[in-house]
């Protein structure tokens, strides 16, 4: 049997691609290596951020024409919500039956309790934390109803694009078999061996290295805020990174931290220390750990030509976590559309590559430079200095992400807190936004 399209991986990208392609009448198979399609084992904080704010900088991008992939959510009665992909046709919207935990801001907190926020108000919703598994299972149900075949417990070991079609070697509990299709969408997430086999990583470059993440899922926690939000607790004497905390539907909490793969830091011990022996331990009295998750992230540069020959690689496999859930949905939808176009004799690959290279901030040199200007605060400051800096932001009413508000207030910080400024910025004046923007334009 030769399918029109085989999709490899049932994460957000693959599930959306399967739903769209099946609804458009293609003969589609989606395979997933886990025993259950729609299950999620790789750690992800599950926040669907509204608007085009990104991972490390909220400043508008001016060097590249980016229409950042984003979403809105129509909140309905419990279990009856609609997710809409911004600037996508109506058939990209889908219903979501899980819990929605609204986050009204993101807040950085120092050991002494000084705080600054990402947004100027706690009265607007920044995003919603979702139950990712319920979301994916809903999309898969839609895909199946439209005729998509779903095969879980099936790992793709090899993929070959032979010009007149795609050949997959897969492994199931019954053994190995070969699957054939006219085209494939590879949606297998980070560290993709399939993208590598197909040659997509050639000339990609290595990037600054890999990060490890670890999270504990807690059944109880008291956040020191009136409104629900995601927070970044900062205590450099316990960890030279942030301790991130947020809701974890249904009804639980997630705390997580990260460190470079090359560092000797033991993340489970860091989390234990935060829970039991830190300035923030009082928030976790009575909490019990109900699950642990982990993952790594490779900060490699993205690949531009994600659609080549009969294959489109989507989502995290040619970038990294910055595609995010909503971005992977966008990739899945557009890749299904592009595959149908290609099967119709049109240039579907160019259609997809145009979308891909204009939907994500990581294709903006300006964004990348802004994000990388400074080391993280807990790497360069101690606990007391963190209290002083966060208190300074609070007393000046300054809100925003560190990568934006530190350079944006460099001169004032050098005047008011010279010792801290020297540690944060180093000996040289770092380039401000105008300088970076001018450099791009030149
Ligand atoms: C620490 C961390 C925190 C994050 N937090 C957020 C957040 O708060 N909000 C947000 O929007 N995004 C977040 N992300 C990013 C988000 O998780 C990803 O961008 C998104 O899940 C990418 O979707 P995907 O479909 O490309 O890949 P994935 O979600 O990785 O799905 C890939 C699927 O393919 C399957 N697979 C892999 N290999 C094979 C194979 N050979 N054969 C068959 N199946 C295979 C996997 O089992 C998996 O089901 C976070 C990421 C990290 C690392």
CATH superfamily of the largest domain: FAD/NAD(P)-binding domain
Seen as an oligomer or otherwise, the chain set is single chain
The main β sheet shows up as:
8 strands, mixed
Q: Which ligands accompany this protein?
A: flavin-adenine dinucleotide
Mean pLDDT: 94
Low-confidence stretches: none
CATH class of the largest domain: Alpha Beta
Radius of gyration: 22 Å
Shape: globular
Instruction: Provide the helix percentage.
Output: 25-40%
Q: Can you characterise this structure?
A:
With 442 residues, the protein is an alpha+beta fold. The chain has 3 domains: 2-105 and 125-205 and 301-366, FAD/NAD(P)-binding domain (3-Layer(bba) Sandwich), CATH 3.50.50.60; 210-298, D-Amino Acid Oxidase, subunit A, domain 2 (D-Amino Acid Oxidase, Chain A, domain 2, 2-Layer Sandwich); 373-441, no CATH class. Helix content is 28%, strand content 26%. It contains 13 helices and 21 strands. It has helices at residues 12-23, 132-145, 193-197, 267-276, 324-343, 348-356, 365-371, 377-380, 383-395, 402-408, 410-416, 418-425, 433-441; strands at 2-8, 28-31, 47-49, 71-74, 81-85, 94-96, 100-103, 106-109, 115-117, 127-130, 149-151, 155-161, 166-172, 175-186, 210-218, 230-233, 243-248, 252-260, 289-298, 307-308, 311-313. Strands 1, 2, 11, 12, 13, 14, 20 and 21 form an 8-stranded mixed β-sheet that branches. It has a 7-stranded mixed β-sheet with strand order 9-8-16-17-18-15-19. The protein has a 3-stranded antiparallel β-sheet with strand order 3-10-7. β13 (166-172) and β14 form a beta hairpin. α1 (12-23) packs parallel to α2 (132-145), α1 (12-23) runs parallel beside α5 (324-343) and α11 (410-416) crosses α12 (418-425). The longest helix is centred in the C-terminal third of the chain and has 20 residues, at 324-343. The chain is globular, with a radius of gyration of 22 Å. The mean pLDDT is 94. The structure holds flavin-adenine dinucleotide. Flavin-adenine dinucleotide binds next to α1, β3, β12, β19 and α5. Flavin-adenine dinucleotide (FAD) binds at residues 8-14, 31-34, 42-48, 155-156, 187-189, 194, 213, 295, 297, 315-316, 321, 323-326, 328.
């Amino acid at each position: 049997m030769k399918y029109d399209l085989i999709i490899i991986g049932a994460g957000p990208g693959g599930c959306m691609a399967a739903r769209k392609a099946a609804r458009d009448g293609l003969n589609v198979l989606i395979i997933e290596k886990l025993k259950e399609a729609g299950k999620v084992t790789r750690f992800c904080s599950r926040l669907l951020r509204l608007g085009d704010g990104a991972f490390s900088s909220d400043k508008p991008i001016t060097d590249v024409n980016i229409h950042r992939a984003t979403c809105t959510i129509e909140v309905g009665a419990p279990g009856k919500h609609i997710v809409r992909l911004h600037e996508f046709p109506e058939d990209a919207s889908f219903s979501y039956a899980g819990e929605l935990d609204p986050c009204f801001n993101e807040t950085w907190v120092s050991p002494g309790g000084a705080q600054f926020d990402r947004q100027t108000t706690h009265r607007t919703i920044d995003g919603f934390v979702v139950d990712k598994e319920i979301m994916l299972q809903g999309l898969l149900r839609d895909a199946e109803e439209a005729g998509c075949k779903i095969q879980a417990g099936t790992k793709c070991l090899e993929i070959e694009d032979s010009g007149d079609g795609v050949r997959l070697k897969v492994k199931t509990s019954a053994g190995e078999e070969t699957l054939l299709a006219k085209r494939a969408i590879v949606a297998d997430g980070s560290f993709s061996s399939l993208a590598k086999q197909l040659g997509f990583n050639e000339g990609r470059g290595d990037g600054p290295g890999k990060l490890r993440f670890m999270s504990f899922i807690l059944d109880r926690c008291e956040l020191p805020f009136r409104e629900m939000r995601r927070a970044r607790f900062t205590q450099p004497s316990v960890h030279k990174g942030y301790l991130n905390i947020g809701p974890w539907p249904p009804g639980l909490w997630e705390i997580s931290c990260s460190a470079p793969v090359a560092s000797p830091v033991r993340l489970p011990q860091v989390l234990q220390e935060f829970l039991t022996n830190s300035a923030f331990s009082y928030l976790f009295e009575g909490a019990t750990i109900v699950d642990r998750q982990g993952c790594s992230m490779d900060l490699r540069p993205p690949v531009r030509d994600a659609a080549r020959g009969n294959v489109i690689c989507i989502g995290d496999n040619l970038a990294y976590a910055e595609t995010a859930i909503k971005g992977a949905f966008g990739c899945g939808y557009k890749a299904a559309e592009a595959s149908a176009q290609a099967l119709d004799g049109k240039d579907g690959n160019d259609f997809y590559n145009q979308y891909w290279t204009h939907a994500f901030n990581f294709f903006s040199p300006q964004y990348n430079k802004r994000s990388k200007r400074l080391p993280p605060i807990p790497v360069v400051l101690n606990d007391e200095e963190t209290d002083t800096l966060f208190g300074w932001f609070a007393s000046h009413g300054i809100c925003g992400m560190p990568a934006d508000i530190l350079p944006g207030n460099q001169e004032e910080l050098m005047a008011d807190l010279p010792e801290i400024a020297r540690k944060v910025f180093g000996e040289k004046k770092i380039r401000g936004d105008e300088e970076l923007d001018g450099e791009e334009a030149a």
